[in-house]
Amino acid sequence: MGDLAILADLQTCDTRLSQLRHRLGNLPEVRELAAIEEDVSDAKEKLTHLESEISQIKKEQKRLEHEVISLETKIAKSNDALYGGGLTSPKEAEALQDEIKSVQRRQTIVEDQIIELMEKEEPIALSFTSGSNAIERLEERREEISGRVLGIQSEIEAEKFEVETERASLVSSVTADLITLYDKQTVRMGGNIAVARLTGTTCGACFLDLSALDLDKIRSADENEITECPECGAFLVK
Ligand SMILES: [Zn+2]
Description:
Blueprint: H1 3-25, H2 28-83, H3 90-172, H4 176-188, E1 195-199, E2 202-203, H5 212-220, E3 227-228, E4 235-237
Parallel strand pairs: 1-4
Antiparallel strand pairs: 1-2, 3-4
Helix pairs in contact: 1-3, 2-3
The structure holds zinc ion (ZN).
Residues 203, 205-206, 208, 229, 231-232, 234 line the site of zinc ion.
């Protein structure tokens, strides 16, 4: 194989490497992971909000429950005074009975408020549970996709390593000057193919057919003479 033909193989390696790098940097699974990450973070924020609502309700509920206990104690004390036999007048008894009734009314109000709070908490607690479950499912999915991404990445890395090894052996088989020429041609061609084979009458870089005159020029050139595709400027290897 002529040295120029080796450059064509080098180009094949570089094209493959660039495809592999592009694939590695644009895995749809990685994009999906980012979307899941966002969903998890949104769901967690909602959960924190619900959690604080629930904790506020519970705090208020506890406060009311303490009030019920203190009202019950007050009623018990008044009952003791009423039936303890220490009363001196019917007026005193009447006042105590009025007080008991008033405390009982307050107790009823507070107990109703506790029930209202429990009813208010119920749907919030349900949302909290379903939110937690949703996060769990998202995290499972994230785990699964992360595993898949690692697998794909290591497959691509292995292939990259293989191509890089092949490239290194190609580079070591030609002169440094030729590699410099290849590098310059690569820069000159931008992102396009810099060296290609002539397949029949077609340029392997731009896939255009060459004229009979150009073909003749290329075919009659020395093996190590550099010929360019007149259409795209790529070096053409016979
Ligand atoms: Zn061409």
